[in-house]
Amino acid sequence: MIEFKNPLEGFYKNEEEKTLSNLLVIQRNPNESISLRLNMKNILNDNRVEPVSMGFSVDSKEIPEAYELLIFDALRGNSTFFSRWKEVELPWKWVQPILEAFEENILPLHPYPSGSMGSEASH
């Protein structure tokens, strides 16, 4: 669930006009769906701000489980969704020198507090 900042909060002085935050909700197994709740002015209701929801979901009863599809592909010899060894090995050739540099303190880490503008070293 992603709750967006509410730009209308405090905008309306009337307590009845209190608005809800916009939300994006993504659900995964077993009920895959996505929904979005937005604030909109309703011209039929004296231009009051009201939440409007949109959603999309799939009836998962007819869809096989993810591993069922992978096993089926493996039995058929279809390797499209399987990684080859070179695809697994290549990223480690790129990452391993960075990990070693951190371990040997050749490349220092500069921690900083969450929500700040970054470490002092970045200035």
Stretches with pLDDT under 50, minimum 5 residues: none
Structural class: alpha+beta
What amount of the residues lies in strands? 15-25%
- Globally, the shape reads flat
Notes on the protein architecture:
The protein has two domains: 1-62, no CATH class; 64-108, no CATH class. Strands 1-2-3-4 form a four-stranded antiparallel beta sheet, with no helix packed on it. β2 (23-27) and β3 (33-42) form a beta hairpin. The chain is built from two helices and four strands. The protein has 123 residues and is an alpha+beta fold. The chain has helices at 66-76, 85-103; strands at residues 2-3, 23-27, 33-42, 48-57. The protein is flat, with a radius of gyration of 25 Å. The model has no long low-confidence stretch (mean pLDDT 84). Residues 2-122 form the Glucose-6-phosphate dehydrogenase C-terminal domain. One of its GO terms (molecular function) is NADP binding. This is Glucose-6-phosphate dehydrogenase C-terminal domain-containing protein. Pathway: Carbohydrate degradation.
